[in-house]
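Take one protein record:
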Amino acid sequence: MLPENDGIVRAQEDILFLGPDEGTAHLMDWASSYAKSRGYSYWKAITTGKSPSRGGIPHDEYGMTTHSVRQFVTGIQSKLNLKAPGAKRLTKVQTGGPDGDLGSNEILMSEGEDTIAVVDGSGVLYDPNGINRAELVRLAKARSPVEGFNKSLLSKDGYLVLISQNDVKLPSGEVVENGTQFRNNFHNRSDVTADFFVPCGGRPAAVNLSNVTNFMYQADGKTLRFKYIVEGANLFFTQDARLVLEKAGVVLFKDASANKGGVTSSSLEVMAALSMTDAEFGEHMAVTAGKPKPAFYQAYVAEVQTRIDNNATKEFECLWREHQRTPTPYAILTNLLSERITDLSVTIQDSSLYEQKALRDVILKDGFPKTLQAKISYDELLKRLPESYLRALFASQLASRFVYSCGLNCPEFAFYEFVQTLNH
């Protein structure tokens, strides 16, 4: 967005996409407005994480990241028949509480599972008999931390320890000297065990090579505390800790695969913004406080959620198949899968495949949400969207479609056979 008289020769206008990170979420609306004031053509799409009044799709309100996390949780349950008739209820421990995006949505979307522990900024909530779900849901809907939990709803074995408390006596007789230290180290307690561990918050590298053994085993030093781990929060585990856990028999899916839902939502938010005129965007994507959300906005959000579910299921199925085929850990397979899709996408962009109209139409018509195509025709979308964007979308869609279908071990000629099937 440099001034046009800056002396820089441009072959084409730059397309910038910026997303919020720690401490920058409040700048997304401002950045969009500033881009508009500078006359930037793509001001509507320059930032994601905007307010709904600016056409943003809030990940927390619609559980976008959790949608993909849950596909991995339920995928494990389905593959291993963990919810068969007569099976015991599944138990879960989660970090990240009902006051957060991932924590609240994990609670709301996990009906049918017994959450036995929740750790958040305010403290530790634990009940080995299952935390009262109705009360957890109440907190999640209110986006309130566990300190607001009604302790009268705990069983005789349950407890709530806040970071502000000291010298708290637990039902077992153990005395917690410092609530903050207790909270910080709770995930390593050998007596806290469940079927699933789903980190939805916490410090990066909370589990690393130096403490993974403590995290992994119960007091006997050989029985696993958790059988299945699906990472909602980024970087809770270091890669070397993941590999130790998998070698010990834990089924673990890392953050880069499990929590892609937020990225998918942001990319489709960008697509809508790039596709619409300012007037269309204001009518169909901008939400006015105190008024019903536009019908298009509601339908589009619902389709985004469906696409997140479908994409996450495809990634889960691909990883599961590859792990069955080889002894490669899931944590490594995630990296290999990402590299394979990225490398193939680059190869496709450097090829002439985009010029094959029949193939291009198949891929892009599938890549454009149906809700968007119902509002703006396919041919019109091709006219409105920048060619560089269309080419990148085509390449990434085709690459992921092939890799998810054929896996990591397909020979090069299999790709060309795959393309031929799409051309007919």
In short: The chain has 18 helices and nine strands. The beta strands are 90-95, 113-120, 123-126, 159-162, 168-169, 175-176, 194-199, 226-230, 251-253. The chain has a mean pLDDT of 94. The longest strand covers residues 113-120.
